[in-house]
Amino acid sequence: MLGTLTAVRVPAPTRVDRTVAGRAMALAPLGGVLLAVLTGVPLVLVSRLDANVSAWALALIVLGALAWLTRGMHLDGLADTADGLGSGRRGTGALEVMKKSDIGPFGVVTLVLVLLLQAALLAQALAFGVGPLVLLLALVTSRGVLPVLCTRLFPAARRDGLGATVSGSVGGGLLVVSIGLVAGLLALAVVLAANWSAGLDGSTATLAFEDAVQLLVAAPCGLVPGVLLALRARNRFGGVTGDVHGAAVEVSFTATLLITLLPL
Description:
This protein is mainly alpha-helical. It has 14 helices and no strands.
């Protein structure tokens, strides 16, 4: 799972089949936790040091680090999916557009707008003093969309590739486990944030209980746009691909950033 969803080097699995793929996708939210630790901890340290760095600069640095830590895989999937949907073609024709090595105009515009929106939202979260928390919620929630897309509801559009490997690999039991994992991780993050204290300067930074509850309720709603995008792609392409999975992750990440800021 970590080797697929992140650039972290881990030993290759001794066995690769649908059972292993299903378990890996069910645990995908843990990949979001790792990414949050690798990007969020430095973010906390910088904020505690009261460094004179703008929120926009920090947001762009975090997004750049995430792109590097994920090999840009999800962003590439977002661009390819945008080109496929924007081509106006269906089925094999759209898949051929997505498979090209270059990025078309729909892909470029989508990447630019999504990254700008992500940077603006993350900068706003940093200005509100909840940047690391919102980042963690968005990373966990966005990776939580993957188990849903690996159920039988989303067949593979191709016979080869990552989409075909994981398609239908997550059964009902694994999906329940994954949903429970996401819920537990989100609840733990919000509880910890609500009881956060003892900053480096001796002050306390406690998230109000009402805000904590609102964040816990709002974060899972970020899954909806990602699932809706996958449903649209399934209907246009005759199924989903690894690119669609990546696009759904980016859309859910952006939506969660937005939704969690609304109650604050």
